[in-house]
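tool_log.txt
---
The assistant was asked to compare two proteins side by side. It first ran the structure predictor on the initial sequence, then on the second. Raw inputs and outputs are pasted verbatim so the downstream comparison step can read them without reformatting.
(1)
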Amino acid sequence: MEVRRYSRLYGRDELPLKIAEYIVENFEPKMLKVDESKGENPTLDPLSVLTPICKHFKTTMPVLSQRTRKREVVYVRHIAMYLLCTQTSLSLLSIGELFGGFDHTSVIHARDRIAELIPRNNLVKKEIRSLTRKIAS
């Protein structure tokens, strides 16, 4: 089921084998994963975060996974990585893998870049708030 959901997000009937194997190995089919024994808060699965982002920016995961430096693609990818860091319990490496194998340091850079922009840029702050509401609903 998860592989089918991700294939829709990636806009393909079939996913590359590496991504499909990664999804099967790493993600539970539940929307919420909670380990109350550790005092964790509920966190969303990656698809619940990525779907609203792609819809909001009218893009797809294959576009965000490209190794391009186009400003509009990088901005959306950074927002997606930031929200995956803050809304899920995924490791930095796992987040990088979702975007086609980006290194964990790329995820750190994206997370920190958006965190720096939020207090200084009202547009970024509004987009993050809006996306967070969409993700939560």
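(2)
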Amino acid sequence: MRDVQWHGPWDDWQVAEEIRPAAHTAEWVTLATAHAVALADSEATIREKWRPIMAWGDSWNHVNVGGRDVYGSPDEWIFYTELSQRSFPLVMEGLTAAWICCPNVEHPNLAYDRNSARDLCKRAQSEGYSFVRKVSAGDDVSEVIAGVRECHRESLTPLPDCNNWACSSVGDDCCAPHSISEAATCTDDFTPVRLVEPCGGFGEGNYHCCK
């Protein structure tokens, strides 16, 4: 699991005692069998605890945390709290990648064509993830599939050292939109990793340099 919304973890007056600690995680959670069984055995208790919290806000994907209407599906909150309260170990890095690009944006970065599907996949590889979310089929499913296949044919190993100073795109601005056929390039043997995020007035093109 992973906190992609920067909500939490909270373990103080900010949230009600019965749901401490609280954090917003990605909705994809991999559970150990023993932990899954323990939660299943307590399903009725968990349901009653979280029912008033889940029934908050204008839609199903908002919860009441600390008296605030906070974005997030219930399953993005429940597992962190319930596992923590039982002292079950958990890893916040997660197996599945998802990124929120900008302030005031609630939805993770989305791939919708060949280029963005390939780029989102390669970004996940560069950060050591096993899976990536939000690779959606746009008007042409075959193009999205082709992008993922391209990614796997030339897969990246994890590249933990990333920066913006090695960018050598036009203007050295780490902005190389596919829509104007600009190449993402780097100096000093760094590898360009596209972020599938806006830059320079374009809907995509932002990248950084890693090795």
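---
observation on (2): The longest helix spans residues 114-126. Residues 17-85 form one domain.
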